[in-house]
Amino acid sequence: MLTEYPLDTGVYDWAIEHGHFQPRAAHQQTPSSVGRFTTAHQEHFHYTDGDPD
């Protein structure tokens, strides 16, 4: 899978800024949680053995 990431901003901040995510619990704001954050709202492309699916 190839995922498009925003430039010059973290995906966590991008998702909050664009209304795709709102942290509701304290653990969702910890550095470890922010560091592994992903969102399906980013454009992404699937490939198998280098060929688009």
Characterization of this structure:
This is DUF7710 domain-containing protein. Residues 1-51 form the DUF7710 domain. The termini are close together. The longest helix has 7 residues, at 11-17. This protein has one domain (2-52). Helices cover 23% and strands 15% of the residues. It has 53 residues and is α+β, with helices and mostly antiparallel strands. The strands form 2 sheets. A two-stranded antiparallel ribbon has the order 1-2. The chain has a two-stranded antiparallel ribbon with strand order 3-4.
Spell out the key features of this protein.
DUF7710 domain-containing protein, 53 residues, alpha+beta, DUF7710, 4 strands, 2 helices
Describe what is shown at a glance.
This protein has 53 residues and is of the alpha+beta class. Helices cover 23% and strands 15% of the residues. The chain has one domain.
Name the poorly predicted regions.
Answer: none
Number of strands: 4
What's the number of helices? Answer: 2
Number of domains: 1
- Helix and strand succession? EHHEEE
Domain DUF7710: 1-51
Protein name: DUF7710 domain-containing protein
Organism: Streptosporangium brasiliense
Set down the secondary structure blueprint:
Layout: E1 2-3, H1 11-17, H2 31-35, E2 44-45, E3 47-48, E4 51-52
Antiparallel strand pairs: 1-2, 3-4
